């Protein structure tokens, strides 16, 4: 009441004086001026409120710190060899909800998922309110994802015994779990059971089945599952179509894959980067250049990161189709995505080397020098093979003589170039002697050159003779513990002599 009175007394209509310039008199104007004051006469000082908030904040920080330390100590105990979470829970008397789920995550990530159900059973029995749909749903989902479908089923049966109502997510976990384990009869049984309990499957229900059919290469069943999905009035979503394309692409079923792809285009559905990558790899595997390039263009507008193996497959398609300039474009594309790595420089060098462009190779070498790239035997052999094909014995000899400047040790391809260079009038006896003297020829035979290089230039005469000579040996002789370059050179010389004499 006092506060209300105070408010009334402080909200007044005041008379203000206004000066009239014509009469030099003051005119009285009834202009209300409201002065508003706090409803409460006594309010806490600002510094007191600030201090109180600061104390609360510090208290929360301290509590959070101690909670973090307790959790850290718990996980450290779990991480010890021979730790038993059941015994730990018994010793601790109980765990909070956060600690319990942290333990479950730990068991899952440390490949101890088979202990999860026992820990859950013990933890929920400590406090009966923990026996609820949410906890069971989460545990069953984890067990299903970990492939422990029998444990998931056991938890499901217990859930029904306790008169808890399993949700659609619980049934999805069972269906997907059985399907992932290849138990499709059980998966379909629970799918059909949904109708009996008035639960309608959603796209996610079918998506897990489709993915499992793909895993087990059951592509006809995958198509039937899609039809069943549509007949049941459940529309396939973008996840469904992405899954279908990925599985069909991996199987190499291009006609089916393209049909699904066209459906996504008509429905203006987005394709995941993994889907585009799968399509790209499928076309690369079959060497279909035009379609491969079409999808490659689409990946440029996505966040797809192409793995090195896929880059090499694409490059191989270009090489086999003599599209050497495309290697350079592929190198620049890769450079923008993943930076200037060895694969990028390999593609740029290889493109110009295959086109026998001295100017192009020199330009790439200058770029590599500016970028302070460490040379490797692949880079060296690309240039050597180009010089060999160009019959440029002078540049070939200079590069062979300066290998040590690049801190690069020759491999079997480099040795092959040296011997094949005799056919263009190059005399490499001096270099061969240097390699013998420095111990290079007594090293074990290695092939460190990227396979793309041999795909582009082919195997030279020396490498072919090595393979023929090795194949001519008895099985026991092939099992020689150590093959050095000297051994291989002697083997080829002996084989050549036997062929000539024969």
From TrEMBL:
Pfam family name, one: PPR_2
Segment forming the signal sequence: none
Record key words, sorted: Repeat
UniProt keyword Repeat present: yes
Coiled coil: none
PPR repeats: 167-201, 202-236
Designated name of the protein: Pentatricopeptide repeat-containing protein, putative
């Amino acid at each position: 009441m006092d506060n209300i009175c105070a408010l009334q007394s402080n909200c007044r209509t005041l008379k203000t004086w206004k000066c009239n310039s014509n009469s030099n008199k003051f005119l009285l104007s009834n202009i209300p001026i409201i002065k508003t004051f706090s409803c409460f006469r006594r309010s806490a000082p600002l510094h007191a409120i600030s201090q109180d908030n600061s104390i609360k904040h510090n208290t929360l920080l301290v509590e959070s710190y101690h909670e973090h330390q307790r959790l850290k100590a718990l996980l450290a105990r779990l991480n010890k060899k021979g730790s038993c979470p059941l015994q730990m829970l018994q010793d601790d008397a109980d765990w909070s909800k956060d600690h319990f789920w942290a333990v479950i995550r730990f068991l899952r990530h440390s490949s101890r998922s088979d202990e999860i159900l026992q820990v859950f059973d013990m933890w929920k029995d400590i406090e009966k309110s923990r026996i609820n749909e949410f906890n069971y749903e989460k545990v069953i989902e984890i067990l299903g994802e970990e492939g422990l479908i029998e444990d998931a089923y056991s938890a499901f049966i217990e859930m029904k015994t306790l008169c808890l109502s399993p949700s659609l997510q619980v049934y999805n976990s069972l269906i997907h779990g059985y399907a992932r384990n290849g138990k499709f009869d059980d998966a379909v049984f629970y799918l059909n059971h949904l109708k009996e309990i008035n639960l309608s499957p959603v796209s996610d229900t079918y998506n897990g089945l489709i993915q499992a059919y793909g895993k087990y290469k059951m592509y006809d069943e995958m198509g039937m599952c899609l039809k069943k999905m549509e007949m049941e009035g459940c529309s396939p979503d973008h996840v469904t179509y992405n899954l279908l394309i990925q599985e069909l692409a991996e199987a190499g079923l291009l006609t089916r894959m393209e049909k699904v792809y066209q459906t996504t285009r008509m429905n203006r559905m987005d394709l995941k980067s993994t889907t585009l990558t799968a399509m790209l790899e499928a076309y690369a595997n079959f060497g279909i250049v035009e379609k491969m390039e079409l999808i490659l263009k689409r990946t440029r507008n996505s966040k797809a990161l192409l793995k090195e193996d896929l880059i090499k497959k694409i490059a191989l398609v270009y090489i086999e189709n003599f599209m050497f300039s495309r290697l350079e474009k592929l190198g620049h594309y890769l450079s923008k995505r993943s930076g200037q790595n060895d694969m990028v420089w390999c593609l740029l060098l290889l493109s110009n080397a295959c086109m026998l462009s001295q100017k192009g190779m020199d330009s790439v070498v200058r770029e590599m020098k500016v970028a302070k790239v460490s040379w490797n035997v692949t880079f060296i052999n690309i240039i050597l093979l180009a010089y060999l094909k160009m019959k440029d014995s002078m540049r070939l000899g200079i590069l062979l003589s300066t290998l040590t400047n690049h801190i690069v040790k020759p491999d079997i391809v480099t040795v092959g170039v040296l011997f094949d260079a005799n056919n263009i009038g190059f005399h490499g006896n001096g270099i061969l002697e240097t390699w013998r003297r420095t111990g290079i020829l007594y090293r074990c035979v290695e092939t460190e050159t990227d396979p793309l290089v041999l795909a582009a230039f082919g195997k030279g005469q020396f490498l072919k003779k090595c393979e023929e000579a090795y194949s001519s040996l008895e099985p026991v002789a092939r099992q020689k513990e150590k093959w050095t370059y000297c051994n291989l050179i002697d083997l080829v010389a002996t084989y050549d002599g036997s062929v000539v004499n024969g």
